[in-house]
Design brief:
The structure holds 2 protein chains of 2 kinds. By secondary structure, chain A is an all-alpha fold. Helix content of chain A is 49%, strand content 0%. Chain A has 2 domains: 133 residues, Cytochrome c-like domain (Cytochrome Bc1 Complex, Chain D, domain 2, Orthogonal Bundle); 85 residues, Orthogonal Bundle (Cytochrome Bc1 Complex, Chain D, domain 2). In chain B, the strands form 8 sheets. Chain B has a 5-stranded parallel sheet, covered by helices on one side. A 4-stranded parallel sheet of chain B has the order 13-12-11-17. A 3-stranded antiparallel sheet of chain B has the order 6-7-8. The longest helix of chain B is centred in the last third of the chain and has 23 residues. The chains are: A mainly alpha, B alpha/beta.
């Protein structure tokens, strides 16, 4: 997440330490009750940040960036490959006002059938309200504005990832290698507990794989697969998946 | 002019349309034919990848004796009450409608390797240029004395998913206070190494959540088993005193079973169960031996770089029926092997590019709600064998969040592999 709010984070940290102390003396529910709405929103967003960024310099990851999400028409961000279901919902007039976001977050798969957000849902209505409020609060763009994706330039990949990004991947080889990926990451772009990797921007894809190689990301299955991939194989996979269209 | 039936006319029209998209040497009437025997994780994947990647240049026929497929993987979750039976049962409709695969519902009973034809139980013969044999396992009934196909109606094996799985569930749900379940686990090599132990976990989960005070005894012909440390840790944590696992040094060898009396005789003791779950030794599905593709082990030797049978260049054997070196017999392995076989077949028949073989496997197991564990490895051909190049296993003592994420990952994998198999 790049929300550029380091001092607020620091405050949140101090608060968290205070709350930890409080938890020794009181019940944890009381501690939660004393959490500021900002800290609570940030805590709730930790479930989202594997896939979404918000705030200054936010970029598309597995999911589209959420800066200025409130009021944005669904499925319309440049540079992100949405599911057909999400694009059609936008064309039919769906805009992400607070009410629509609330229904969506409660049960994403039911709200828009066939969308590919891999998230079971946030059951607690108060949590949803807190999170939506926080998203509005940390957004730097004008609500609802169509913000251009800053994908390539805002990003500083490791030098190893740079080497791979400079390589021309062979999509045909990528398609064969992808056989190993699509056993879990569905080729249709649908997601049921494992994130979609269909249409991921090349630089994001390559950087993510290098993050498994360097233990920044920790999933054992992914680490195992990636450690067995040579640079040209990563380049081939990135070339293949970035061109793939979700269904 | 000769008589043209409607069926024939349809074929001719189909051929005409296909000519536009294909080089002239691949006109429909001389399209190479691939026949796949077995519509599970190996066969369905092979058929789909052949059809998808050849873009109509190969005529693909899939033979399975059922018109739908119940996956063995996740059938333990059905036993545990986490999935309904419909959610682990899949149709072949999309493979036919979206990929143009011909599905033949019937039993393949023989292969004439000289004529390159498959014989069906109903007398039909189906010609092939390349044959994929993916029949899964057959049970060696008499590996446990007193057990038989008939006895399985009383003491289910449930090691092939379907009615047997439903029967075991029915009997499990009927277990009451003070009763006992006895499982006889299979000797190596067998389908799904952690399967028996995940099953025991799911049985205990059902009993525990209903508050039934019953015991589960596992009589194992093996000294140790897959993910043993993880399962034993989980059993002690969630099901204290409910599960007892005995290796051969404790029971002295499994001698016989009497399903009517509900007893298992071992070298040192007699065990009585109100429910017996007998999982016998296994071999490659019958058609593999009929086709002369098996060796003394009962399974099929293959070329590690391609999954091609060492007995016949035109035949590929994948999945549980094959001897795949270090790879376990699992749905994930079969799916992975199918892609290597399909690529090599396209290389044989339509000059597609053949890349070096890579194989992978991951097996997830559920111990209790939201407590999943996994083991996985990568494989590559080395010195003529499929060898493991690296691996991982879940650790004992992992935190709840990790275990929950592992379980959720397994749900994602199930959705992924079944759509990779059936479209």
């Amino acid at each position: 997440m790049r929300n550029g709010l380091d001092n607020r984070n620091a405050v949140a940290c101090l608060l968290a330490i205070g709350l930890l102390c409080a938890a020794f003396m009181t019940t944890s529910s009381l501690a939660l009750a004393e959490e500021t709405p900002y800290a609570a929103g940030e805590r709730l967003f930790s479930q989202c940040k594997t896939c979404h960024e918000v705030g200054e310099g936010a970029r598309h990851k597995i999911g589209p960036h959420l800066d200025g999400i409130i009021g944005r028409v669904a499925g319309t961000m440049d540079g992100f490959k949405y599911s057909t279901a999400m694009r059609e919902a936008g064309e039919a007039g769906l805009a992400w006002d607070r009410e629509a976001l609330d229904s969506y977050l409660a049960k994403p798969r039911d709200f828009i059938k066939g969308n590919r957000m891999s998230y079971r849902g946030m059951g607690d209505a108060e949590d949803r309200e807190t999170l939506i409020g926080w998203l509005a609060n940390v957004s730097v763009s004008v609500p609802g504005a169509v913000v251009e994706d800053k994908a390539e330039e805002a990003h500083a990949p490791s030098s190893f990832a740079d080497i791979v990004l400079a390589m021309e991947g062979d999509p045909e080889y990528g398609e064969y290698l992808a056989g190993e990926c699509v056993t879990c990451h569905q080729a249709s772009g649908h997601a049921d507990g494992i994130p979609s990797i269909v249409g991921l921007p090349r630089d994001y894809f390559v950087t993510a794989l290098f993050e498994y190689k360097t233990n920044v990301r920790s999933n054992e299955v992914m680490k195992l697969r990636v450690n067995n991939l040579a640079n040209e194989e990563i380049a081939a996979l990135a070339a293949y998946f970035s061109e793939l269209e979700p269904q | 002019m000769t008589r043209i039936t409607r069926r024939r006319l349809g074929l001719l029209m189909g051929a005409g349309a296909a000519t536009f998209a294909m080089p002239t040497y691949l006109r429909a009437q001389d399209k190479p034919k691939v026949v796949v025997i077995g519509g599970g994780a190996g066969g369905a994947t092979a058929a789909r990848y052949l059809a998808k990647d050849s873009e109509g240049a190969i005529d693909v026929t899939l033979i399975d004796d059922s018109d739908q497929f119940t996956t063995c993987f996740f059938s333990n979750l059905y036993l545990g009450g986490y999935r309904d039976f419909g959610s682990i049962t899949h149709s072949y409709d999309k493979l036919q409608s979206d990929y143009g695969i011909t599905k033949v519902t019937g039993m393949a009973v023989g292969v004439d390797r000289d004529a390159k034809t498959v014989q069906m139980a109903d007398g039909a013969t189906i010609p092939y240029d390349r044959l994929v044999v993916s029949p899964g396992i057959d049970l060696i009934w008499d590996s446990v004395e007193g057990y038989s196909e008939e006895a399985a109606a009383i003491a289910p094996h449930a090691w092939k998913a379907g009615p047997q799985t439903q029967l075991l569930k029915e009997k499990l749900d009927a277990i009451g206070n003070g009763q006992q379940i006895v499982m006889v686990a299979p000797p190596n090599p067998y389908r799904c190494p952690p399967g028996p132990y995940e099953r025991v976990s799911m049985m205990a989960h059902v009993l525990k959540s209903k508050g039934v005070d019953a015991k589960i005894i596992v009589l194992d012909p093996k000294d140790k088993f897959s993910k043993q440390g993880l399962f034993e840790e989980g059993w002690a944590k969630y099901y204290p005193g409910m599960i007892e696992w005995y290796g051969p040094t404790v029971h002295g060898g499994i001698e016989s079973v009497d399903v009517e009396a509900g007893t298992v005789e071992t070298g040192l003791d007699t065990f009585k169960g109100d429910l017996l779950n007998i999982i016998p030794a296994q071999k490659a599905g019958m058609i593999a031996a009929e086709a002369g593709l098996t060796n003394d082990s009962g399974f099929c030797p293959i070329d590690a770089a391609s999954m091609r049978s060492t007995e016949d260049d035109s035949i590929f054997v994948i999945g549980d029926a094959s001897i795949a070196g270090a790879m376990p017999k699992s749905g994930f392995s079969a799916n992975s092997q199918a892609k290597v076989a399909a690529m090599n077949i396209r290389g044989d028949l339509i000059d597609a590019k053949v890349f070096p073989a890579k194989y992978s496997n991951t097996c997830w197991s559920l111990i209790e709600s939201d407590d999943g564990v996994k083991v996985g490895a990568q494989y590559a051909p080395q010195d003529g064998q499929i060898a493991s190049t690296s691996s991982f296993i879940s650790q004992t003592g992992e935190d709840e969040e990790t275990r929950k994420a592992t379980y959720e990952e397994s749900i994602g994998w199930y959705a992924g592999i079944t759509s990779d198999m059936f479209g």
